[in-house]
Design goal:
It is a single chain. The protein is mostly helical. It has 2 domains: about 55 residues; about 30 residues, no CATH class. It is built from 3 helices and no strands. The termini are far apart.
Length: about 90
C-alpha cells in the first residue's frame, strides 16, 4: 500500500513541475500578445483622433479661430452667426 501512496505523490510532484514549465514557456507568448494588444489600441486611438481632427467642420473651425478671430476677442463680442459652425463656410 505504501508503494501506491508514494507513487501518487511522485506523480503529483511531476505534474506540478510540468505545469510550472508550461507556464514559464507560455509567459513570453503572453507578454508578446499584451504588447501587440497595446500597440493595436494605440493605433486605433490615433486613427480615431486623426479622423476627428481632420473632419472638414473641425478644419474650418480651427482655421477660423487661428486666422479670422482677432487676438483681443471675447465670446460676448461675437454675434450669433460667428458662433454658429455652419456659417464658417465661405
Amino acid at each position: 500500500m505504501c508503494w501506491i501512496y508514494c507513487h501518487l505523490q511522485d506523480c503529483a510532484a511531476l505534474a506540478t513541475i510540468v505545469q510550472t514549465l508550461i507556464v514559464l514557456i507560455a509567459l513570453p507568448f503572453a507578454l508578446f500578445q499584451l504588447r501587440e494588444a497595446t500597440r493595436s489600441r494605440e493605433l486605433t486611438a490615433t486613427t480615431q483622433l486623426l479622423a476627428e481632427i481632420g473632419a472638414p467642420k473641425i478644419r474650418e473651425a480651427r482655421r477660423y479661430v487661428l486666422y479670422d478671430l482677432k487676438p483681443d476677442f471675447t465670446v460676448s463680442s461675437l454675434n450669433k452667426e460667428q458662433l454658429d459652425l455652419s456659417s464658417l463656410s465661405k
